Amino acid sequence: MLTRRVANFLRIAGGAAVETLYPRCCAGCGRRGNWVCHDCDAALRRFARPWCERCGAPPLQLSCRCADLVPALAVVRSAAPDDGWLRAAVRSFKYSGETARAEHLGALLLPLLADLPPFDALVPVPLHARRERRRGYNQARLLAHAAGKGSSIPIEEVLVRTRPTDQQVGLDADARRKNVRGAFAVKDGADISGRRFVLVDDVLTTGSTLGNCAETLVGGGAAWVGAVTLAREL
């Protein structure tokens, strides 16, 4: 009983500390109280059907991007354009240490996961160990765990990044592909043969990172690979 009380106290105290360091404020207008206020949330044009069944592009917002996807990546879904409050929230979450946003952002992935064919586990896109130490966390892992918690889907970190790569931000499509080529491997001892996985990442730009991850999984024996991201560049 005492141990449970101590655990509850630490959980509450930890939550209060996070709220103090990173109080909930709207990523769009800065209003305190919520990660996004009703007005800013309503202004975000979430992707919705009808969309391309493979690349997830809604014709009224985005042209079909299937030609950009490698064959190993069977399907991609993103929650909304990389714009407005979502763009600001992702960057605060990714670069400014606002990890408390993970639960709210992860919830945006739940409708996307429900739209996919059956699969076995979520796989966060890995960071190189050096970059993860410098940043202090892997944002894709936090998103995957938040989404998994909300859906009871298991998370399996079956991929590793084998070498450091340059930041993809600012690189053109060809440079992005070259930057991540051969940068991933299946983790030693990971059981992926014949299984189905969904990759999780924050933003989809050219699809080069997700494509390399998908090729690595399929090359290692996975039967099917899809992907979900919070945002997608138009």
Counted up, domains total 2
In which range does the helix fraction lie?
Answer: 25-40%
Find the count of extended strands (DSSP E, 2+ residues).
6
Order of helices and strands: HHEHHHEHHEHEEHE
Notes on the structure:
There is one protein chain. By secondary structure, the chain is of the alpha/beta class. The protein folds into 2 domains: 1-43, no CATH class; 46-232, Rossmann fold (3-Layer(aba) Sandwich). Helices cover 38% and strands 15% of the residues. It contains 9 helices and 6 strands; from the N terminus they run H-H-E-H-H-H-E-H-H-E-H-E-E-H-E. The strands form 2 sheets. It has a 4-stranded parallel β-sheet with strand order 1-6-5-2. It is globular. Residues 4-18 have low confidence and may be disordered.
What's the structural blueprint in terms of helices and strands?
Elements: H1 2-21, H2 38-43, E1 75-81, H3 84-95, H4 102-107, H5 110-115, E2 121-124, H6 129-135, H7 139-151, E3 159-161, H8 173-180, E4 184-186, E5 196-204, H9 208-219, E6 224-232
Parallel strand pairs: 1-6, 2-5, 5-6
Antiparallel strand pairs: 3-4
Brief summary:
This protein has 234 residues and is α/β, with parallel strands linked by helices. The protein has helices at residues 2-21, 38-43, 84-95, 102-107, 110-115, 129-135, 139-151, 173-180, 208-219, and strands spanning 75-81, 121-124, 159-161, 184-186, 196-204, 224-232.
